[in-house]
Amino acid sequence: MRKASSKVMKDDLRPEYDLTKLKNAARGKYYKQAMAGTNLVLVDPDLAKVFPDSASVNRALRVLCDAAGKSTQPSRRSIKGSTNRKRSAA
């Protein structure tokens, strides 16, 4: 059995606020909606100096994706010399 907390909660809520009048108050009610369009990434401080805003980060990532996409696509030479021909039955 746990010991009762010795810390007393301080109530800073003003007396004129009547919480019983709040309808449909629920913790996390809009959490899914807020997270649907949000993708937060923590950037190290040294990179935050280089990329001061989200537009510069997005630009850099798009350049990186383009460069990576071009390097992973097979070249025309490797496609042309492909040996995917059907073998004749002997």
Written description of the protein model:
- The protein contains 4 helices and no strands.
- Helix content is 40%, strand content 0%.
- The protein has 90 residues and is mainly alpha-helical.
- It is elongated, with a radius of gyration of 29 Å.
- The model has no long low-confidence stretch (mean pLDDT 77).
Round the Cα radius of gyration to an integer and report it: 29 Å
The percentage helix is: 40-55%
Outline the biggest β-sheet: none
Count of DSSP E strands? 0
Rounded to the nearest angstrom, the distance between the terminal CA atoms is 82 Å
Q: What form results from the Cα inertia axes?
A: elongated
In short:
The chain has 90 residues and is mostly helical. 40% of the residues lie in helices and 0% in strands.
Strand-helix topology:
Elements: H1 31-36, H2 45-50, H3 54-72, H4 76-80
Task: Note the main attributes of this structure.
single chain; 90 residues; mainly alpha; 40% helix; elongated
